[in-house]
Specification:
Among the domains are: 86 residues, Immunoglobulin-like; 86 residues, Immunoglobulin-like, CATH 2.60.40. It is built from one helix and 55 strands. The strands form 15 sheets. Strands 47, 49, 50, 53, 54 and 55 form a six-stranded mixed β-sheet that branches. Strands 38, 39, 42, 43 and 44 form a five-stranded antiparallel β-sheet that branches. Strand 2 and strand 3 form a beta hairpin. The chain starts with 10 loop residues before the first helix and ends in a 13-residue tail after the last strand.
Length: 581
């Protein structure tokens, strides 16, 4: 039997539906109990309780590492008991304290950290209507102050800080519950709003992401009649919107959107509600070629109204959310492997909460909504600790000074894909082979002089650390200088064809090479007494003298004496004798 969740169930209609759905789910779970997730993807532990339960609030990481939670609501959207209260979470003491209240109650607003550390709160709804009002929180004084209101009332909009510090607000729902196409920009320096043009499609409860090139990618949302599959990009340089590729056949709102690490701007869209169901699929948008890669993976559980947080190691924590089967726990997506790992169970699986990445790599989840109402909980996600790396040996253990570069293998245990080989404390480009072996290329700059540089392995937190060191020996040697005794040929005529130059002498090695006019040319080593190289016709097109020298890649200071090679002028044919008529 399929039960479709109608969009925007509110008030008594929402409660009636939840009662019926809960009864159905209880019967199904009695027949087939759910599987308890494994805890290999990290664990959750309590983080105190706020004074007020709340959902549809905001949470902002402040420059001092504390988290400001502002506004929200406590009951249904038909009869919202909105809040003006604000609270601060201190990670050092794992405790909450009351902060100054907003001037007005509001929920479904946005909060944006400005470049100067203040927080811009815009729009939302109060007990009666949508809002255009704006307030700014100053952490230094701990006070709120009014700012110029937006030109439109809106809730369910997005607010994105641009590279120049201004804030782009887009879409949302107005006082008549019509979805909006309009966007506007707040300039903190001018303390004013200006129009940013119209989006191609009206949308609310969509998602927005600032790309590495400074543009803003917007996807999905509610149209007023249903979810949508369209996407568009805002260019702050031209202050214009343009439509991009759609996620065809998969309209979504209440999904999550995460910018993945790297310069390409790849954006991950997960879950959401659309086409009468909650989704578990993940989709990837690549702005470089304006293309979607739909359904690249599936979560363990369907979820909408959840949070997605990019962790310090590049993985994505998907927490909470809701679907017909109930409120969800957490799972972690690894983009490198396109694979999921379940987290331990949350104490309070919920929807419409906030998730904030803290400076120590943990994630604070605050508030949220369950079938029983608004939550005042704080909950911390702690990623699994990486093992401490152990370095046992390296290969090769030594190389002569002047080595042009080599691949170093290190052996030990506890290595991860994030582990890095360090040379005298500096990270080198590392390849993960297995938990027992890593490889790294060491450039020629590491072998300029003799010594015993230390090799270690570093694994970033959580957990990890630096291994014990192993000394690599850069051997002191000058090498034996190569010697040139003869060139064959020793000269050619200018303007002729290319030829093979043979260099005869001694002390040549497999790393010897020929310098033609001081420039390295491709060399074949025949023996310790003979080298050869092809000289093209353009090298001997003009009469003159070329220099020939032999060098050794391993010992840059060891070079032969310079030999001169002659490029002679062509002989002129004598003019024919004139004869008398």
């Amino acid at each position: 039997m399929k039960i479709t969740v109608p969009p925007f169930l509110t008030g008594t209609r929402y409660l009636a539906f939840r009662a019926a759905a809960t009864l159905a789910v209880f019967i199904l779970w009695a027949i087939s109990p759910p599987v308890i997730p494994a805890e290999s993807g990290g664990v959750w532990h309590p983080a105190g309780a706020m004074e007020d339960g709340r959902y549809n609030h905001t949470a902002t990481l402040l420059p001092d590492g504390s988290v400001l939670v502002a506004g929200g609501q406590q009951d249904s959207e038909d009869f919202p008991a909105c809040l003006s209260s604000c609270e601060l979470y201190d990670p050092a003491s794992a405790s909450w304290r009351r902060a100054a209240d907003l001037a007005s109650v509001r929920s479904s607003h946005t909060a944006t950290l400005l470049e100067d550390g203040r927080v811009l709160v815009a729009g939302g709804q109060d007990r009666r209507r949508e809002l255009a009002t704006v307030e700014i929180y100053d952490p230094g004084s701990g006070c709120w102050s009014p700012a110029e209101p937006m030109t439109q009332r809106r809730m369910g909009h997005t607010a994105t800080r641009l590279e120049d510090g201004r804030v782009l607000v887009a879409g949302g729902v107005d006082a008549q519950w019509d979805t909006l196409t309009g966007s506007e920009i707040y300039d903190p320096a001018a303390e004013s709003w200006t129009s940013a043009g119209e989006m191609t499609h009206p949308r609310g409860w969509h998602r927005a992401t600032r790309l590495p090139d400074g543009r803003v990618f917007v996807f999905g949302g509610w149209t007023g009649r249903g979810s949508q599959e369209t996407a568009e990009i805002f260019d702050p340089v031209t202050s214009t919107w343009h439509e991009t590729a759609s996620l065809e056949g998969i309209p979504l709102y209440f999904s999550s959107q995460t910018l993945l690490p790297g310069d390409g701007g790849r954006t991950l869209v997960a879950g959401g509600y659309g086409s009468g169901k909650t989704w578990k699929a993940l989709h990837l948008f690549n702005p470089d070629n304006n293309a979607w890669f739909p359904r690249i993976a599936e979560m363990f559980e369907e979820r909408n109204s959840h949070t997605a947080t990019l962790l310090a190691d590049g993985k994505v924590l998907l927490a909470g959310g809701w679907c017909l089967a109930g409120f969800r726990h957490g799972e972690v997506f690894d983009p490198a492997r396109a694979a999921f790992t379940r987290t331990g169970p949350m104490a309070f699986p919920s929807a419409h909460h906030t998730a904030t990445l803290l400076p120590d790599g943990t994630v604070l989840v605050a508030g949220g909504r369950t079938a029983d109402g608004a939550l005042n909980r704080g909950e911390i996600y702690e990623p699994p600790l990486r093992p401490a790396p152990v370095l046992m040996k390296i290969h090769p253990p030594s190389a002569p000074a002047g080595t042009p570069g080599l691949v170093l293998s290190v052996f030990g245990s506890g290595f991860t894909a994030d582990s890095r080989i360090r040379w005298e404390g500096e990270i080198r480009d590392t390849t993960f082979v297995s938990s027992l072996r890593l490889k790294a290329f060491l450039p020629a700059a590491d072998f300029v002089k003799a010594g015993t540089p230390e090799v270690t392995v570093w694994t970033p937190p959580p957990g990890g650390g630096v291994s014990g060191g192993v000394l690599f020996t850069v051997e002191k040697t000058t090498g034996t200088a190569p010697e040139i005794r003869a060139l064959l040929p020793s000269s050619v005529t200018a303007g002729g064809v290319g030829f093979v130059l043979r260099v005869l002498g001694g002390h040549f090695t497999k790393t010897s090479g020929i310098l033609w006019n001081g420039r390295k040319i491709r060399t074949r080593v025949h023996s310790s007494r003979s080298l050869a190289a092809f000289i093209s016709s353009r090298e001997t097109a003009v009469p003159g003298t070329a220099t020939v020298q032999v060098f050794d890649e391993r010992f840059p200071q060891a070079r032969s004496d310079v030999f001169l090679f002659s490029i002679v002028r062509p002989k002129q044919e004598p003019a024919p004798l004139e004869t008398a008529p």
